[in-house]
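[Automated response] Your request has been received and processed.

Submitted sequence:
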Amino acid sequence: MLPKKPPMGFNTWNTFGPDISDAMIRETADAMVEKGLRDAGYTYLVIDDCWSKRQRDPVTDKIVADPEKFPQGMKAVSDYVHEKGLKFGMYSCAGVRTCANYPGSYDHEFLDAKTFAEYGADFLKYDYCYKPDYADGSLLYRRISMALQSSGRDILLSACNWGCDDVYSWIRSTGAGMYRSTGDITDSFGSFRDIFLSQLDNMKYNAPGCFNDMDMLTVGMRNRGNVAAKGCSDLEYRTEFALWCFFGVPLMLGCDVRSIDDTTLKLVTNPWLLRINQDAECRSAFIAHKDRDNLCNVYARLLSNNEIAIMFTNLSDHPHGEVWFPLDAIGIPPEAGKALQLTNCFTGEDAGTVKEYMLLPLEAHDCAVFIAKVVDA
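Generated structure:
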């Protein structure tokens, strides 16, 4: 399945790691519905690594769900997720073993794809650990893609090779709908900043059918869970979420949505930011005004309905009194007699009209996001 817009959902890894269970998945599905996440667009509920037994079934050679974690099997879990109006996601790996040392799908691609289809999977995250050195990565992703296509079920392939092997040049040809382009995220400002900056030159490859995946969001984790690090402030989480939205990458929540706090819930369901992320035209964002070290750039992105999104960033550790942006950088010279009518995406409020340039102070680690219309000056 080739997604027309960046996929949205929840993945178990960031918070739970190996501590997953039938009850936790069902409770998460309930929470995604009750808290309005499903209706906001978060439709995939994905189980990551550690869901299976350590070895394949000696008779059938199939990967088998851990009976202690999932006593009713994966089909029962999948059915419950589907009953909630959500889509069900599974995990495997292109290597002999998964990253947590469970059975991988190397040389078992068609059997495993059939198994996942029998479970009712709609999504497969496909990792890259324990891949034999002689095995070509692009061929392995083509293998699993062909296996999924022949499984009898429409399953979105989420390739996760961490940006290795010049993945940008070949991943779209494999049939993957999204692809992890970075190493693992941790719950800290430095982690998501470095991941974002590492992808600035690769966003041109982001387009309908195959989206650059900068990893699951840590928004709202508050230094709890499997990838806990320093944690982030609300301001920093706001910047993380805004960056992921603005650059049109998949939005996979990683916090425990069962106990998501009101501030985080309001942020991840912000209609203005989600509107940018899910814009029908899926155009790439670009640098409208470049700072010397990329920490205080201004970005722009053309949207449908003749709108344009503008994002001011201060990813440095110090306040910046004058983040500057000339409108000519997006094609509106001073002599054009045009201006921008702004809406503040964090508040939804009218932010006034600007012409010729914008000058904005920002605290350290902060950002500002606007949706604008070109109007007569």
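Summary generated for your ticket: DSSP finds ten helices and 18 strands in the chain. The two ends are 45 Å apart (CA to CA).
If you did not submit this request, please reply to this message.
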